[in-house]
Structures are given as C-alpha cells and as structure tokens.
Amino acid sequence: MNWRLIRNHPSLLIGLVATALFALLGLVSLWWTPFPIEQIVVARRFQGPGPVHWLGTDNLGRDMFSLVMSGTLTSFWVGAAAVVIGIGVGVPLGLAAAAWGGAVEWLVIRISDVTFAFPSVVIAILITTLMGPSAANAIIAIGIFNIPVFARVARGGALAIATQDYVSAARLAGLGNVAISVRHLLPNIMSLIIVQGTIQLSLGILAEAGLSYIGLGTQPPATSLGLMLRDAQSVFLIHPWLSIVPGLAIVLIVIALNIAGDGLRDAMDPRLKREGINHGAG
Amino acid sequence: MAQVDIENLTISFGDREAVSDLSISIKRGDRFGVIGESGSGKSLTSMAIAGLLPETAKVTGTIRLDGEPLPADEKAMARLRGKRIGMVFQEPMTALNPLMKIGAQIDEALRLTHERGTVAALLDEVGLIPAHADRFPHQLSGGQRQRAMIAMALASQPDLLIADEPTSALDVITQRTVLDLIARVCDHRGMTLIFISHDIRAVAALCSRIGVMQGGRLVETGTTADILTAPKADYTKRLLAASRVERHVVAPLEHKQALLEVRNVAREYGHGGFWPWGRKTLRAVDGVSLSIAAGECLALVGPSGCGKSTLARMIVGLDSVTEGEMLLEGRAYRGRDLPPLLRAGLSLVFQDPFGSFDPRMTIGDSIAEPLHLLGRISPMERQARLKEAVEAVGLEESMLSRYPHEFSGGQRQRLAIARALVTKPKLVVLDEPVSALDVSVRGEVLQLLARLRREHGLSYLLISHDLDTVAAMADRVLIMEAGRIVEEGTPERLFAQPQHALTKALMAARLPDVA
After folding, report:
1. Helix (H) or strand (E) holding A66
2. Phi/psi of residue A142, each to 5°?
3. CB atoms A281 and B41 under 8 Å
4. What region does A56 belong to: left with phi over 0, alpha with psi -120 to 50, or beta?
C-alpha cells in the first residue's frame, strides 16, 4: 500500500475517507458527545433538527446526533471484533488445510460447511438463550459466522500459492508446514484477507444492526444503530425522521466500506494489477 | 502490393514505448518470422495487426491490410479478424474453452464465418482423426490441442495466419510436427504466415523472411539466408552466436564412486472415484534404477509426461516412492523422509526463475533459507555463506537486500543456482534449468553451471527435453519414456547411433542448426 496506489484508484480513496470519517465519529463519542446519551428529558422529545439538537431528539428526548455517534462506535466495534475472531480462527484453519491437505483439509472444509449451514441469527438466538442478550454475544455470533468465510478465502489463496516453486524450495530447505505457512503462504495471501476483512466488516455491521433490531444484540442504556431503529419503529408513521437517521447511517457506512473493499481488491489483486503494461507485452 | 503494410507503428503504455517506429511490409504468400526476446514487442506487434491490443495501449502509425487501413470500429474489426486473420497462441490449454468439445469449438468457428468447410475436413487437414471431435481439451495432448487450435484458425479460410510462439510450450518431437504442419498448411492454402518466436532455429526452419526485434525496435530484416549467413546488426550476430551451444567438457573424475543410487523406484498415483475400489492407478515412474557418480553430469531426457520430473521430485525429497529406495552416499531414503543433514547434500534448481522466489521476501532471505538445514549458525557465517554463493554465480553481495521483481530472468536463475549452492551440496538436480530463459542468456547460464561443476566438484542430474543443452553438459544420457528408462549412453553415441524408437524420434525432431 502506498500513495501512488491510492491515487490510481479514486474509489479506494473515497471509500477509505468515508469509512475513516464514520470511524472517527464513533471514536470521538468515547470522550465527547454533544449530550450524554443516557440523559432522558421527556419535555424536549420529538424535536426536529435544529441548532441545539443537530439531528433532533428521539421519543425519550435523547439527542439523536449523540446516539448516532455512539451507535456508530458500537457498530464498528462489534463488526471489527467479529472480523478479528474470524481472521484469528479462520485463517489458521484455512492455512492448515492448504499446508497439510488430506484429512486436515477434509475436516476444515466439513466444519466450515456445517457452520455455513447456520445463519448468524440462529447462532445468536442459541447464544442468547444460553447467556442472555448483549453486544458481546452479538460479537461471538457474528465472529463464528465469519470463521468459515476466512477459512475458505485463506485456503483458496494458499492452495494457489502452494503450487509455486518457492514453496517447494522452502520444503527442500527443510521447513515444516507451520514455517511455510507463516513465512510464505500468509504474506502472499494477506491482500486477499484484507479485502475480505473489509467486506466482512460491512456485513458484520449489518448483522449487528439486525441482531440489535430483534433484541439479541446491544442492550440499553448502551445504543447501536439497530437498537435506534427498533426504538423508532413504533412511531415510524408519526415521526419517520427517527428511523431515517439511523437507517441512513447504516446504509452510508456499508456503502463506504463496500467501495473501500472494491477499491482495495482492484488495487491489491495481482491479476488485475498486471493488466496494462504487462498485458500481452513480449 | 503488400498484404500487410505497417508504417511507423508505435505502441506505448503510459510514457513507456513498447514498440517504437516499426515499419514492415509482408507480401502475399510470404512466411515472415519475427524473432526477439521477451519484452521486445513482438507479440504486441502481432496483436496490433489483429486489432487485439489492450485498451490501455496508445497506438500511432498505420497498419494496412491489402492497402486498406484497419477499421477503427470494433465491430468491423471483429468481422475482418474473423474473415481474414487466423491466430494460433502459445498455450492451447488456455486458448481453448475447457467446457466445450473440440468438434463443437471448431464448428462454432465455422458457423461464425459462414464458411462451407466441415469439421471432419478441418480435423483431417491438421492431422487429427474424427474421434478427436468428441473430446474435451484436457483429454488431448499438448500437440493435439495445438492442432485443434490451428483447425479453428483455418475454419474461416483466412489469408493471414499469425502464430505467436505456437510451439514453445511443446516438447521437441511435438514441436517439430506442429512446425511441419504449419508449413504444410500454409503451402497448401497459399496463406501468408507471421510466425513469432524467440527460437531462431524454429524461425529459420519455417520462414522465408525474418525480422529481428530488440527493445521494441526492428533492428534488421531480410531473407532467411541473408540473416543467417550475413547478419548486419550486432544484436542479430549475438543471437546467432547464442543459439550455438558450446560443449562444456569437464574431465570426469578417475575414481568413480556412486554418489546417488536409485534402485527400482516406482511412483503410483491413485485417481478417479471416491470409493477405494473404482480407483485407477497411474504409474508415473515404473521401476527406474540409475546411479550418479561423484563429479558426473547425468542427463535425463524424455517427452513431457514421461515421469522425469516426478523422479526428480522424489530424489530431492519432495515426494516419496511407492516402491524401491534411493541411497545418497550410502544412506537409504524413500523421499520425504530424507533427514535434514543429508538434505543439505543435494539441492534443486527449478525451471521457472519467476516462480522460484517469494515475491515478498528479499533475495538474501530466500537464498539463506536452506541454511536452516545445517542447524544453528552464527549471523557472521550466514553472511559469509551468502556472499560466497552470490559471488560464485557472478553477482554482487549488495543485491541480497533487493526483491525478486528487480531482477531479469537470467539473473534470477543465477540467484536460484546460488540458493542451490549455499549449503555446499554434492548433487544438484537441474530441472530444465535454461528452458524458460531467453536464448541469449542460456549460453551464459550453461557456462556458469559448467564452471561451478569444475570448481566445486559438483554432480548434476540434468533434466531436459532440449537435446542441445544435454549435448553441451552431460557425460551420460538416459532416455525415459512412460516411466521407464529405455536407453542409456554417452551423448556422442546416442546422437550418432540412436537405438530405441524414441531416441530416434528425438534425434529426427532436432531442428537444423543455423549458420
């Protein structure tokens, strides 16, 4: 990654900047929000956007802008933690499948097939039944859903790398499967994983909103964009603004992440990168 | 009037010119050969004629076909291409649709151009039998696929055939038959041929006129006889000189002690079917025995798919034998179980210098990797070993901190040899060490290998399908066919009096020497 790369891919720049803006908005809420989000003032509820409350107030008189800031943070935090779980477990599994092959590979593929068969909502319901609803449980549910995705991406990428002569050379040099995975396979599939990570982050944010909406994710007094939608649904016909704000926030974050992910793929995928000067030269 | 007339053609990508100011005119019925190294712009030129350049290319100059400039409209260009120009590419496996039967693909080419020929007639013309029409590309051999490609190119009754390195992915025998086929078809139909190759001997055997390209420029053009006997440009002279491989004789050691012994080795691959009983086994290597003496260079020659690479992989310990055993300096092993210290005693140089280094690691780290086999060594000794290895192959220590993409193919192959030498092995297995390199650097690399052998008393197992490389390097040659060794002898004996049918076919397929 360098600046020239970003300059050649304007969509990457747009996506990254937009994502960074939302992430920053969320991070700032850790130290400062215009109003404390727990502050309920019934007297000023259902206010439209104005100079004091930039995005208005909700049915309990809480400041919408503060809620969006805090909700964005929750969304990013849940999505990112789930991606970390997915990469942390899935990538080693995928690398092991590619490096050892045989029975290990069979097992990894079967495990990911079984995990794929359960949507994250089902896993979330299971976990909630066992441990009660919370943001942490949403992270675990989405993280489990992410594991097979990363396992497959890592295995696919590593299989392509494993046929290269330099991997054979490393085997000749007496390196074992672990050393080969860490030294050769992992660095060469890193770009694939980063791109997939961006995509899974946006999917995770959507899933978190969904889980919170049905009451299985973040619990009050903390807030998330999905929870804001849930609070607003009962008054949607009278005060549509309350639903539009968190809804738009989710849409914009996901679009920003998808643009960034597409841009990253174009910029980092070697097959696309080789197009141009080397295409057909020689 | 010339059939193809190129005037001041310049093709550039960004601010880099890939082809500069090129003018050629090719008469109807000519067989024009374009020769040059990778990156010389020869393929781009041919793609410009067919209007197939990538969109990022900027083109100036004119190309005329029978006096008419190429249409700018893509639809008209496609029609012209379909009607008038047939193309044959280097790798038939990727040029054919893997999901369509050969017959259907040829039929499609016929229908698109509304020509009257039949699939059977085309198959017959390129030397395939009607039964081949019902096969998928992966069920054909490389040579048969290339024949099918030629049949597709002929479907539209083109008057210009562009063949871009059509034989460089094929082994010697198939190469010769495909070259003969192209020559016959062009004669028979009176087609103009543009033949692109890096192999000056293939061009000389096939073409009546030759254009030599270097760095995007046409340095010389003339009749084949003129170019071969009286080359004017320095570059042409160097190309001609490089195509003559000198014999690097190393006096064999008196005391011949076997370094490596291979005893009755076989390797089977099981495939097809989930259930153990519907499985077929393929014997890739079938009861091979051989021995290599200390200081000897043994060559293993055979067509592609004969099992020579499988054998090499087992000897270096990348794969295990199904039957038999191997002995390195008297210690028996079966392949992957080769212990680390013994592993340090042999190494492998890969065919493709571009795939043999990790693009994300510095050259130094890659070359130092085999040192791992020697157990713990101090950083000082590591550096000293690296320096020694890199200087032995004629490169500098300062290059160790660079990355693979900064080196040319020839340099990378030198570095791959350096990596093979870093543990000071006794036996080096060379798997087609020069076949992926440009002709002009092949000679240098072979010379380097001969010098290293002399200086370090190395033994080589040279795997190749290129008889010139073998003639230049080997003390003894084994001919391999379908997993078995069918003939053995010194190169002089084999070249003069081949006994086995395969050896005879190999010798007959050699292209005539130039100059």
Report:
1. helix A64-100
2. -70, -35
3. yes
4. left
Domain borders along chain B are 2-243
- pLDDT value, residue A273: 45
**Which candidate, B112, B5, B95, B113, places its Cα nearest to that of B49?**
B5
Rounded to whole angstroms, the Cα distance separating B490 from B296 reads: 12
The answer to whether B156 and B107 have CB atoms below 8 angstroms apart is no
Tell me whether residues B355 and A183 touch, CB distance under 8 A.
Answer: no
Mutate to test the interface with B, among A7, A100, A172, A185 (most CBs of B within 10 A): A172
pLDDT digits (tens, 9 = 90+) for A225-241: 888 888 888 888 888 88
| Residue A81, pLDDT score | 93
Count H helices and E strands in chain A, helices first: 12, 0
Tell me if residue B480 falls in helix, strand or coil.
strand
pLDDT band at A83 (very low <50, low <70, confident <90, very high): very high
User: How many alpha carbons fall within 13 Å on the CB side of residue B151?
Assistant: 30
Residues 6+ away with beta carbon under 8 Å from A125? A216
* Cα dihedral across residues A280, A282, B2, B5: positive or negative: positive
Rounded to a whole number, what is the distance in Å from the CA of A145 to chain B's nearest CA?
Answer: 30
Of residues B176, B125, B131, the one with CA closest to residue B154 = B125
Q: Does A172 touch chain B (CB under 8 A)?
A: yes
Residue B446 · residue B248 · CB < 8 Å: yes
Q: Which fold has domain A71-271?
A: MetI-like fold (1.10.3720)
Nearest Cα to B180, choosing from B172, B110, B256, A35?
A: B172
Split at pLDDT 50, 70, 90, the class of A281 is very low
Q: Topology of domain B2-243, per CATH?
A: Rossmann fold (3.40.50)
Alpha-carbon distances, residue A101 vs A93, A107, A150, A178, A181 (angstroms): 11, 10, 17, 13, 13
ipTM of the complex: 0.77
Where in B354-490 does DSSP place strands (E)? 427-431, 459-464, 476-481, 484-489
Strand partners, B270: B281
Weakest-pLDDT range from A138-142, B91-95, B288-292, B464-468: B91-95
Q: Which helix (H) or strand (E) holds A70?
A: helix A64-100
